[in-house]
Design goal:
It catalyses: a fatty acyl-CoA + H2O = a fatty acid + CoA + H(+). One of its GO terms (molecular function) is fatty acyl-CoA hydrolase activity. It contains 4 helices and 6 strands. By secondary structure, the protein is of the alpha+beta class. The chain has one domain: Thiol Ester Dehydrase, Chain A. The protein has a 6-stranded antiparallel sheet, with helices on one face. A hairpin with a 2-residue loop joins strand 1 and strand 2. Helix 2 packs parallel to helix 3. The chain is globular, with a radius of gyration of 15 Å. 32% of the residues are buried.
């Protein structure tokens, strides 16, 4: 898996101000608050710091932030794996991967523990399957300091790039 392909899929195509109805979640993903730590075929590692903007008034990481990241980071990992396997280089086409990474069929999340403001969260995305028309990843959210599992997601996508429909 090419780390640069993963980075390109997460590059913003618009600023938060350009997005109609922009939410804190949109700007969180777009703003670069999520760091790519490592990438290899079938596995991508990200991290981010929980800030007050992404927390409830009580200081806990909002579940919507976790769900958004499971969607965005899972999509990036699926897309970069499919592109890497097919040999297509989107930079030659002048495209980012976000619009071509398929359609989510299912995202399921289990919230197992809490994260609070100031916690560093590690997100590990593992490719479980990349077939002709469906891709599946698991997304684990862990407290970087304690190693404790905070949330676990499974994301299934219909791969429009490879589909003949």
């Amino acid at each position: 898996m090419d780390p640069e392909a993963v980075r390109r899929t997460l590059e913003p195509t618009a600023s938060p101000e350009d997005i109609s109805g922009s939410t804190p979640y949109d700007s969180f993903v777009i703003s670069g608050a999520v760091r790519l730590e490592a990438a290899e075929h079938g596995r991508v590692l990200f991290s981010f710091l929980v800030t007050p903007r992404h927390a409830s008034p009580q200081g806990y990481l909002l579940s919507g932030v976790t769900a958004t990241l499971a969607d965005q980071l899972g999509s990036a990992a699926i897309f970069s794996s499919v592109v890497g396997l097919s040999g297509v280089d989107l930079s030659d086409l002048g495209l980012s991967g976000l619009g071509l990474s398929g359609v989510s069929l299912e995202i399921s999340l289990s919230y197992l523990d809490t994260a609070t403001v100031g916690d560093e969260i590690e997100v590990e995305v593992k490719l479980l399957r990349a077939g002709k028309s469906v891709g599946v990843v698991s997304v684990d959210f862990r407290n970087k300091r304690t190693g404790k599992l905070i949330a676990q997601a499974r994301h299934t996508k219909y791969l429009a790039v490879s589909s003949k429909l």
